[in-house]
Each structure stands twice: as C-alpha cells, then as structure tokens.
Specification:
The protein has 856 residues and is of the alpha+beta class. The chain is 25% helix and 27% strand. Strands 28, 29, 30, 31, 32, 33, 34, 35, 36, 37, 38, 39 and 40 form a 13-stranded antiparallel sheet that branches. It starts with a strand and ends with a helix.
Length: 856
C-alpha cells in the first residue's frame, strides 16, 4: 500500500518555496509491518494522487488553487494529528490510490477492509459537526438529509471504516476530538444498528448471519451504485473484480460470492419494501432493512424449531385435546411423522448446509411445504429465525426447472401439509426471467358520464401508456370518480408470472364525503395485490389461432348505489403488449353484478374502426387501402353506410341509419365518411370487362368471385366525435349491428375459379338511398359489425325473480293493511273531493289541462 510520509508532507507545506521538488511524499510499504494512521471521511473538493505527487512541479497559480481546497487542508490536518499521536505514516483514500490504474484501484478496494483493520488508529472526520461534543440525540433539523445524524453515518464506505479498525477517534469540522468508538458504542448502536460488542471487539465476537450484516448497510448510500456492493466485500471476507458500469449486477455477484463461501440461509431472508417476483437474490442492501434480528441456526437447533413450527401452524391436520391452556396432539400418525421428519433432517444436515451454483440456479436442499390448491407454489423454510423462537420462510413459484421468489403480498392460502425435503434450483439471475409488457390505455370516453381519472397508485404515469415488469409483480391502480354521483371505481393493471391481468375494484359502501382518492387507491392496491395470483389465473386465454384475428375480452361491473357500470375491454397488441379501454355505461342494476370475462374477436389487420367492434366474418374478401376486409353480398337489399338493425344469416333488417339520425339532429354529414381505394386485382380473364385497368375483384371463399368496375369503398370515420355519437345511441341501438363499410361500383359480375362468368350485375342494390349522387352507382358489397358500445348485457334471471318476489311481497303487505269500514269510506270521500278540485280548470290558467294527470 502507498502511505503518506507525514514529515515530508508537513515540511513541504511549512516551506513550500525551499522544498526539494524531487522529494517523495508517498512510499510503498507493507500494511502488516508498519504502524500507521488512517483517515475516514466524506469526499468533497479533494486533492488526488496526481496533485500530491506533482504539487511542486505545478505553476504557482495552480499550486495555490490546490492548496486552498478543503480536501488538501484535510490532508494537512490529518498529518498534524498523526504527528501529535506519534505516527510517521498515514493512509488517505483520496491521494494514496492512483485511480488512473484499474489494477491498483481494484487491489485497493479488495484490500481496504484489511488496511483499516491493521491501522493503529482511524480518524473519523465529521465535517458537518460543529459542536465540541458528539451528537447523542437525533436532530432532523440540522441533519435532515441523513436521518437526523451526521452524514458520515449514511455513507456506504464508512460502514467498514467504523467496524474494521480497533480504535476510531471522531473529530468535528475544526479537528477537535469529540469521542472514540469504545466510549460511544451505545450511541453508535442506536445510530447504525450494529451491536456494541461488534463495535468494541469486531465481527468475530459473536455468531453473525449474512442478513444481519446486510441490514447495517440497508440505509446507506454511495455515489456509484456498484459501490454498494464493493464496500461490503471486506465485511463478508470475499473478493471479486471491479467492473464499474455493471450497475446493480455488482450486488448480485457479491451475493453469489458469499454463497460460495458460506452455508447461511439468511441470505435468502430479505424482505423488500415493494414486493416482487423473480431472483432469490436481493436487488440491493435495502431489501434487508428488517433483518437485524435474524440469527443463523445450527442443524440441531433448526430441527427443534421446525418441530415447533409444525405444531404452531397445525401442519398435517393433527387431532388435539385441550388441557388447561395447552393443546396436545393425540394422533399417533402425527407423532410418527414428526419423529421421521426429525430423523430425516439430521440425516440431511450436510446437504442442508451445502450450496452449489450453476447456470441452472442455486442448488439447495430445503424443507418445502406444498400448497394443495396451487401446484406451482410452495413455502420453503430456512435455517434461520428471529430471536429465540420462530423460523423464516419464503414463498417460491415454479418457473420451469427452477424456482423464483414469489411475492409475500400474494397471501398464499393457509398451509396444512407436512414439510417435504427437496433439492431445488433457485433462480439467481435477476434478469433471467424478466419481461416487460406495455399497457396502452384509452379512457377518454369515461368522461361522457362524468367520470374522470383522478390519479394512479402507487406511482404516477403520464400519458396513456405504462410499462410493467414481471420481476416486481408489478401493479398499478387507476382511480376514476364522479363526485356528483358519489360513485367511483379503480382499475388495476398487473403483470404476474408472465401473465398480464386486469381487475375492477369498487366501494361496497357509500364513499365518505371528502375521502381522498389516494386512500381509495391504496385500499384497491392492497386488495388486488393480495389476490394477484387469482386475478392472473382467471384472465381469459386467446381462443382464435388465426394470426389475423385478435380476441378482445370484456368485463362488466355494476357500481353499487348507481345507474352506472364500469366496462373494461382489453386485448393483446403486437409483441405481447396489451391494449385496454375503460368506459362507463348506464346500467339499471338488473345485471348480475361483476361479471366474468366475455370474449369477442376483432380483426386487427382490417379497417380502422370507431371504437372496438366485433366484425361479422363474411365470405368475400377485398383489400381497401392495403387492409383486407371481409364483405357480404347485398343480395337485392338496399344497404347504405351507417345502417343499423338486426342481423342474422346474412340478412340485415334495417331499423335506422346513423347519418339520417344525425341529419335529424341538425349535424352536417357531408364529411363523415372515409373513402378508400379497392386494390385486389384479378388473376382471371373476365369476358364482360373490356378494360381491365379499372377492374377490382372481391374473392369468395367458395369460388364465386365478384368482378367490380370503377369500385370505391366507403367506411365510417375514425374520430372521437363519431365514437361519442355511437355511445349516445347505445340505448336506442342496444344489441344492433352496424354497416361499417360499403363497396360501390358502376358494374359487376360473378365468375368462378375458371374465369367463367355466372351472371351480371343488373340492379342488385341501386344507390337511391345512399349518400352518393353519381348516376348508375351500385352497392354490391357491405361489411357489418357489432359495436361493443352497443353490446347489451343480458339481464340476470335470478335477480329478476328476486325483484318479482319483492314486488309481490310488497303488494301483499299493502293489501293486508287495507283499511275497511266507516274510516275507509271517509278516506274515500276525502280522496274524491281532492281529485275533483285538482281536475278543475282555473280561469287564469289559459288551458284545460287535466291537473290530476300533471300531478301524477
């Protein structure tokens, strides 16, 4: 290691003009045979290796600038303190490492814990403490950025610099001593969570587990993310090469190195603030923040606690008798099973303490409790526990040949089976099974009934898209509310075990006035998060294998105490991403509450449509603007774009037309149709068509093709105004089908696969009722679809029967209490007089309206 020559540094500083420029201030020495002091501090404007070595060769202006730096003055003060304490050599990380050399930097980081441990004294410089005594109470005003304590205690590298040296002396910003590690051990334990015996003696004083040591670093920070791992190598007595730029993978490598040299199960006992699924290794030290009380267990102790764990959780469903306040198992099979498990555990003491790492995962033998209703999940019990009682367990989920860590928020069902000893392969690549899925959200039409997006929980996202990760069991909740109607609901978007899922949550009780939407979103998040496995399992599967078809799934959820229902439509997009539409519709409450998913199919490669629609699969196919569209033959019907009605077996019984409705309302319809170009050319010679340059062919699935001359296509416009128009007609046109496209031409004929003409066009569907004013325009083909916004939910028969029963019971009660006798006749006379008064016409009224009818 390179050490500062304290005398050379101070003499150079005392007479900077007369000092020999060639005099060396750094010397290579052995840390074991040298008495030296070492500095621990927070970095600022420092003087590095290059400045200290070449200070005398600098220009005077540059040299003065270096000497004025706080970092340089810190070096001088450290040398003065070392001289006062009788040390000739001093090590400081800022100037004793040539960071231009990657090999020297790697050697220094791997050796740093040893260098601090072998130092005679460590000077801990607290640059933000200006008092003459060590702060023994938390002060969030003065140290607000570091949890109420000096910043030195929240830095990653200073953890080993506190534990490794035998003697640590603390100094304030003026280099006044304010205490040492041994005397301040109780205060330091409160600040850092490190036991006093470890502070006074070192790591070998007690049996420490990996999780407990990690917990000391949980709230510490470093400038480089890799240093969160590199700063802990010495505490675990492991070494590994430095790879700055690898990011969070450094902490994964650190854990694997620990596993290679340790048999401590507590390395799997981390408990993150935000649940996730994936690697059994933690993301960073903060995942161990609640592990300070965990202790490693030896085989015999583990066996005893496992038996208690089985008894406390009533595994195996044993029979019990109550004696005073103690339950005693009376099932002999249960006692035999416990004895066998104890024997089995002792026979596997060596495999239980052995880890093996491969590309297939971390091989480990663990007692595993299977779940009867979930063959993919299990609970593994670790050989570590809290305090004197209890064991730590983790939830695992199968992902092929290996097991991933499952989220604790899954609230797995209560377990009853006996543990089984199994050899498992645990996933250790953090990104091995990572997948991201995008959700494209369309909720603009929910505002039609006064519902607005209030916010998202637990994190915000802007725009109409969000990406979720499989490694975190990702979940985000979107809250919608209508304050005027005192109604609200939440939509959860989740990604669990490679499965995207959607769920609707609403208040069973009336929302309290003034309740913050965040509280509602938080409740929805934890409610849906606790059942995310069920929600993912209940999501519908794609039914159509046709690559051109894309299933869409609809969920209808009636909102209690309202006339509204939330409707969610979701489907897959390209690359496995999802598209979600959230809407609100009127619902009288006769539905059967929250429905399961219903399936509808949408042709994603077809024409753009105004909102989700379920197109009917017709027998003719034609390309319009490059999109293949399925069409049906008009067969003599008068079909126009925008017609709607009942459709069955190729026949549309028209009950109205959207454009006619718009004209009735005074809306201009001139520009509300998109004109498309038909582009399917004929592979056959059609005798009737003299000029083939304007010929288009609509191919038939059974060989009866249509040749069209001067064809053009018309389709519904795709804009928000038209979508809202369809929504406004949802009550009037509920359950109807809509003509979404028509093909117009000047002439057409039918021919077969051999090119032989079968018939001519004639006048199959003249366009007298269409929107075109061109002469001789025919409409031989059209496409029809069912708009999802017009989808009519079938009423619940059981609920209708309940309403009828309530109505009959109500009338029975009314008839039972009907008044008879003189009192009833008196009431009848009074009622007749009142009715006659209401029927009279007043002279100032100006009309003879039946006032009784108005009242009613």
């Amino acid at each position: 290691m390179k050490l500062l020559d304290v005398r050379a540094v101070l003499e150079r500083e005392t007479d900077i003009q007369q000092t020999d420029p060639e005099r060396e201030v750094l010397k290579e020495l052995d840390d074991k045979g040298t008495h030296y002091a070492i500095l621990s501090h927070r970095w600022g404007a420092e003087a590095g290796y290059k400045e200290m070595v070449g200070l005398m060769k600098m220009e005077e202006r540059k040299r003065d600038e270096v000497r004025r730096r706080d970092g340089y003055q810190k070096i001088i003060k450290s040398c003065e303190q070392a001289t006062n304490d009788g040390y000739e050599w001093l090590w400081i990380d800022t100037c004793c490492i040539d960071k231009r050399s990657s090999s020297e930097l790697s050697e220094a980081i791997n050796s740093m814990y040893r260098w601090y441990r072998n130092a005679q004294v460590c000077y801990a410089y607290l640059n933000d403490v200006d008092g003459s005594v060590f702060p023994v109470r938390r002060d969030v005003i003065k140290f607000g950025k570091s949890f109420g304590w000096p910043e030195w205690f929240v830095r990653g590298w200073t953890l080993q610099e506190l534990i490794a040296p035998k003697q640590v002396e603390f100094f304030n910003k003026d280099w006044v001593s304010i205490g040492n590690k041994r005397r301040l051990a109780p205060v330091l334990q409160e600040i850092t969570g490190i036991p006093t015996e470890v502070l006074r003696v070192g790591l070998d004083v007690k049996r420490l587990c990996v999780a407990e040591i990690m917990s000391w670093a949980a709230k510490r920070e470093t400038t480089r993310v890799e240093d969160r791992a590199y700063s802990l190598m010495g505490l675990f007595r492991v070494n590994m090469p430095m790879l700055y730029g690898e990011g969070e993978k450094a902490f994964q490598r650190l854990q694997l190195e620990i596993i290679r040299t340790s048999n401590d199960h507590s390395i799997f006992a981390w408990n993150p603030l935000r649940p996730r699924t994936g690697s059994v290794l933690a993301d960073d030290p903060s995942d161990f923040w609640r592990c300070s009380g965990i202790a490693k267990l030896e085989p015999n102790e583990f066996a005893d606690r496992l038996m208690k764990y089985i008894e406390e959780n009533k595994l195996g469903n044993p029979w019990y008798i109550q004696r005073n306040s103690t339950k005693i198992a009376t099932n002999p099979i249960h006692w035999c099973r416990l004895a066998w498990l104890r024997w089995r555990l002792r026979s596997l003491s060596q495999p239980l303490r052995t880890f093996a790492i491969s590309n297939g995962g971390i091989q480990v033998c663990l007692p595993v409790i299977p779940l009867s209703n979930s063959p993919f999940h299990c609970r593994a019990v670790l050989a570590c526990g809290y305090g004197e009682v209890g064991l730590v367990s983790i939830d695992l989920v199968s992902s092929g040949s290996s097991f991933d860590r499952a989220s604790d928020a899954l609230h797995l069902p209560y377990i009853k089976a006996y543990p089984e000893f199994k050899t498992l392969y645990l996933t250790h690549h953090q990104d091995a099974n990572e997948m991201h899925r995008g959700f494209a959200l369309d909720d603009k039409h929910a505002s039609y009934h006064g519902f607005t997006r209030r916010g998202t929980y637990p994190r915000e996202f802007r725009g109409d898209s969000v990406t979720l990760s499989s490694l975190k069991d990702d979940l985000i909740v979107i809250v919608y509310a209508n304050d005027d109607a005192s109604s609200r609901f939440a939509v959860g978007l989740g990604y669990y075990l490679s499965q995207g899922w959607v769920h609707v949550f609403y208040d069973e009780d009336s929302p309290t006035q003034g309740t913050d939407w965040r509280d509602f979103g938080r409740r929805a998040y934890y409610r849906m998060g606790g059942a995310r496995a069920d929600h993912a399992r209940n999501m519908p599967k794609q039914e159509h294998e046709d690559e051109r078809s894309n299933d869409h799934f609809i969920k209808h959820a009636h909102l209690p105490r309202s006339i509204w229902a939330a409707r969610v439509v979701w489907g897959r997009r390209e690359m496995g991403n999802f598209k979600l539409m959230v809407d609100v519709e009127q619902c009288p409450g006769c539905c059967d509450g929250p429905r399961g998913w219903t399936t509808t199919s949408n042709d994603w490669s077809g024409l753009d449509m105004p909102g989700p629609m379920n197109p009917v699969r017709h027998t003719y196919r034609l390309h319009l603007d490059g999109c293949q569209v399925r069409l049906d033959k008009c067969s003599g019907q008068q079909i126009a774009l925008g017609d709607y009605g009942d459709y069955s077996n190729g026949t549309l019984i028209c009950t109205g037309n959207i454009y006619e409705d718009m004209r009735t309302l005074g809306i201009n319809t001139m520009d509300l149709a998109d004109c498309s170009t038909a582009s399917s050319k004929s592979d056959y010679a059609v005798p009737m068509m003299e000029n083939e340059y304007d010929l288009t062919v609509a191919y038939h699935d059974e060989g009866m093709h249509l040749a069209l001359r001067r064809s053009k296509g018309l389709s519904l416009p795709v804009n928000e105004c038209f979508v809202l128009l369809l929504k406004a007609l949802s009550t009037r046109a509920a359950g109807k089908h809509l003509v979404i496209a028509v093909i117009k031409c000047s002439d057409f004929c039918t021919f077969d696969d051999d090119g032989e003409q079968r018939d001519s066009g004639g006048e199959p569907a003249s366009d007298s009722g269409s929107h075109s004013r061109e002469p001789r325009v025919l409409t031989p083909l059209y496409a029809v679809a069912s708009p999802q916004v017009w989808r009519k939910e079938p009423p619940c028969r059981q609920r209708r029967e309940q309403f009828q029963s309530i109505r009959k019971h109500f009338y029975a009660l009314v008839n039972m209490h009907e008044i008879t006798g003189p009192r009833a006749r008196h009431k009848s006379v009074v009622r007749s007089r009142r009715d006659s008064c209401q029927t009279q016409t007043h002279p100032w009224d100006g009309n003879s309206t039946d006032r009784r009818k108005i009242v009613r």
